[in-house]
Amino acid sequence: MTTQYYVPERSYWPILASIGLFLMALGAGTLINGLQQDGSNHGKWLLLTGAALMACIVFAWFRNVVRESRAGLYSAQMDRSFRWGMSWFIFSEVMFFAAFFGALFYIRVFAVPWLGGEGDRGSSNLLWQGFTAEWPLLQNPDSELFPGPSAVISPWGVPLINTLLLLTSSVTLTIAHKGLKTGSRATVKLWLALTILLGIVFLGFQAEEYIVAYTELDLTLKSGIYGATFFILTGFHGLHVTLGTVMLIVILLRVLKGHFDAEQHFGFEAVSWYWHFVDVVWVGLFLFVYIL
Questions:
Q1: What pTM was computed for the model?
Q2: Is there a single domain that holds both residue 69 and residue 80?
Q3: N or C end of the chain: which has fewer CB within 10 A?
Q4: Which residues of the chain have pLDDT under 50?
Q5: In terms of domains, do 180 and 283 share one?
Q6: CATH of the domain at 23
Q7: What is the pLDDT of residues 9-48, one digit of tens each?
Q8: How far is CA 166 from CA 23, 199, 239, 272, in A?
C-alpha cells in the first residue's frame, strides 16, 4: 500500500513572512525606545508596514492552502500534519499566557508581600516608609513616580457580561459544528454568525471598559504593577479574541461559498479549537484578575 504525501511547489511566502515579522519587531522596538535625535520616530511606520505585509501574506498563503485542499491534493497524512500543527500552536499559546499568569502569581504571592515586610526577605522600612502590601495595589511604593489607580473595575459589571458572552459563544460555535457534521448548512450559517456577533460585542464592551479605566479610574499602563499586569493580560486576550473573530468570519465566508462537508472540515475545527481555548483563558482572567 502506497501512502500519498503532497509536496507543495516552491513558495516565497516563508521568506516574505520573515521580512514582515522583522519589520514589526524593529518597528515595535523603535517605537518603544522613543524619539530619535532629530525628533522623529519611524517605529510606527515600520510597525504598520510589517503588519500590513503580514496581513497580505497570511491572506495569500491561506488562499493557496484552501485551493490545494479544495483540489483534493491533501491525503490523510496531511490531515494529521495539520492537526498536529494546530495542536502545537495552541500549546504555544497556552505557554504564552502561562508566563503572564505566572508573573501575576509571583507578584501577588511573593514580591508585594516581601516589599511589605513579610518574612525575612524585606522590611516595610527598607525602601519605602510605611508601605502597606495589599492586592489590588492601589498605593504604589513610589506613588509620585507611579501614581496608583483610584479604583479597580468591579468584576460584576462588564467583566461578568463578557464572561457570559464568551461562554455563550462556545455553545453557539459547538451547535454550528454539530450542524456541519449533520449536513445542516442553515444551522451552520446561523449559529456561526451568532458566534461572530458575540465576539464583536465582547470586544465592544472591552473597549468601553478600557475607556472607563483610563478616563475615570486612572487605571493605566503607567499606574504601577497592577495596571501593567491588568492591561497586559486582558489586552493580549482581547487581541486573541480579535484574531479569533477574524478567523470565524473567514470560515463563515467559506461556508457561504459551499466549502466544507460532514467529513472534510478541519479548517472549521481548527478555528473552533482556537476559540474554545480563548474562552478558557478568559475564565482564568475573570477569576484571577477581576475577582481574586
A1: 0.86
A2: no
A3: N
A4: 1, 122-125
A5: yes
A6: 1.10.287.70
A7: 788 899 999 999 999 999 888 887 765 555 566 888 899 9
A8: 33, 7, 14, 13
Query: Which residue reads 468601553 in cell numbers?
Result: 208
Closest CA to 152 of 220, 241, 104: 220
Q: Verify that 66 and 109 share a domain, yes or no.
A: no
Query: Is residue 199 within 8 Å of residue 248, measured between CB atoms?
Result: yes
C-beta of residue 271 within 8 angstroms of C-beta of residue 254:
no
pLDDT tens-digit readout, 155-179: 999 999 999 999 999 999 999 999 9
Q: Which long-range contacts (CB under 8 A, 24 or more apart) does 236-242 make?
A: 236/96, 236/97, 236/100, 237/97, 237/278, 237/281, 237/282, 237/285, 238/203, 238/206, 240/93, 240/278, 240/281, 241/166, 241/199, 241/202, 241/203, 241/206, 241/278, 241/282, 242/203
Query: Domain containing 152: what range?
Result: 75-291
Helix (H/G/I), strand (E/B), else coil: 218: coil
